[in-house]
Recover the amino acids of this structure.
């Protein structure tokens, strides 16, 4: 819906009537594909958790385990 | 955290992430070729291309910048909810160098996108002509537009670099505690983020109609970015939830927290948008009201109604449910 929201903000500046062109679909997907490829590359480059950050304790040792047997 | 407890869980991303990167690249390249065909072969292709490019660029830039903002909020507030998605948000934030490169076509398209970049004698509307005669000598100049954009990207990439650099250090055993460094950067960083995003929104989007002004527009764009970033992170954590280590790290409590953030951001998004609409509608000034008159007529009103229903009403109603927010399969 963010895309539709931005479409409603940007596109009426260029057209008084509702117009959806092929470019409105193709170009954002093209940018998105390249962006997502780089995003997943970045995601793959590091562990999914900063293991030696003090805050990692909150995930690796859940709260309900504290003080447990 | 001791090395022994970390070794119990392999924290590397599952192989599906590499596959998704490859598939995304294929989609990106194929659609880029189609976009090139539209650009060169269609009668009105160049104008349509640049409009669509601005739209797509703002959408994906929003995910990257919103991710950076959420990371800084997390560093200031703490909480496991942010730790479990920190690397997802970080990966999105670290796309900012790519987005700086992807901004170049917008610079190329300035004369086609922005009426203020066109020669004044080609503008027939007298009111707009007089307005532009003033503002194109001071703020809305092509050079100013480019220099400010460079400044925004330097700020964003600098923040991204510092947050990423210190985060990477904490992957190594015996690394120093960077909590104070993160907090020191995140406080001023969020203020800088607010200012730069507001000015970027004015430059890149609001100036499409240089006769229209809204003092809350920057915040409207900002909250849209943060909301889209949180939704994006939830989609990615859902994909990763089918694999280790996310399946072992992501508890219903964390999912609940992410759902609560989505609800909060949805409400703030509606609040800012309603505030803008109410002030402009009540003021009924010719320079401002044209924005909504144009967007309520010519078929645009239907799009507006879809946004009100599916960007606010439906997600707001659904996200009120506690069981819904605690279930990653439903939340996504």
């Amino acid at each position: 819906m963010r895309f539709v929201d931005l479409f409603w903000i940007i596109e009426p500046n260029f057209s008084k009537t509702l117009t959806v062109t092929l470019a409105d679909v193709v170009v954002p997907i093209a940018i998105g594909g390249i962006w997502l490829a780089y995003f997943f590359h970045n995601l793959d480059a590091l562990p999914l958790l900063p293991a030696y950050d003090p805050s990692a304790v909150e995930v690796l040792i859940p709260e309900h385990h504290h003080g447990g047997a | 955290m001791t090395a022994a407890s970390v070794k119990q869980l392999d924290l590397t991303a599952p192989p599906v992430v590499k596959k998704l990167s490859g598939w995304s690249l294929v989609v990106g390249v194929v659609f880029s070729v189609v976009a090139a065909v539209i650009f060169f072969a269609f009668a009105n292709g160049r104008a349509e291309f640049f409009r669509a490019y601005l739209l797509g660029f703002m959408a994906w830039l929003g995910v990257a910048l919103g991710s950076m903002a959420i990371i800084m909020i997390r560093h200031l507030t703490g909480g496991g909810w942010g730790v479990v998605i920190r690397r997802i948000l970080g990966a999105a934030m670290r796309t900012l160098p790519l987005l700086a490169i992807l901004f170049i076509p917008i610079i190329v398209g300035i004369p086609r996108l922005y009426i203020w970049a066109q020669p004044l004698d080609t503008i027939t509307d007298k009111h707009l002509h007089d307005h532009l005669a003033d503002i194109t000598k001071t703020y809305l100049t092509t050079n100013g537009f480019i220099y400010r954009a460079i400044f925004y990207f330097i700020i964003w990439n600098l923040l991204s670099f510092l947050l990423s650099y210190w985060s990477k250090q904490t992957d190594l055993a015996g690394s120093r505690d960077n909590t104070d460094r993160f907090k020191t950067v995140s406080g001023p960083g969020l203020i800088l983020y607010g200012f730069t995003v507001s000015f970027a929104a004015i430059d890149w989007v609001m100036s499409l109609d240089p006769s229209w002004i809204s003092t809350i527009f920057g915040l409207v764009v900002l909250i849209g970015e943060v909301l889209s970033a949180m939704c994006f992170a939830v989609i990615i954590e859902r994909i990763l939830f089918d694999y280790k280590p996310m399946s072992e790290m992501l508890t219903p409590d964390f999912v609940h927290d992410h759902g609560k953030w989505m609800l909060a951001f949805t409400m703030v998004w509606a609040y800012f948008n309603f505030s803008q609409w109410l002030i402009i509608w009540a003021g009924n000034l010719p320079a401002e009201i044209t924005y909504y008159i144009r967007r309520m007529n010519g078929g645009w009103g239907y799009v507006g109604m879809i946004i009100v229903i599916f960007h606010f009403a439906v997600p707001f109603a659904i996200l009120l449910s506690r069981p819904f927010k605690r279930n990653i399969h439903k939340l996504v």
